[in-house]
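Revision sheet: structure tokens.
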Amino acid sequence: MTRRTAPRTALLVVGELLLWWGALALLWLVFITSVDTLERVVGASAAAVGALLARAGRRAVTWR
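Predicted:
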């Protein structure tokens, strides 16, 4: 990886993780009827873990 592509690659990674996190957090909030602070924290954490796993899974498939 060259220096020119490193910032672009980092932005793509961050963008993908944010997109996954947003979609998963939104699903969490849709399925929970009354949302308090603890549920928001748990939902955001679960969405972050899901986003990391989704990215890892996508990279594992496209790495071949």
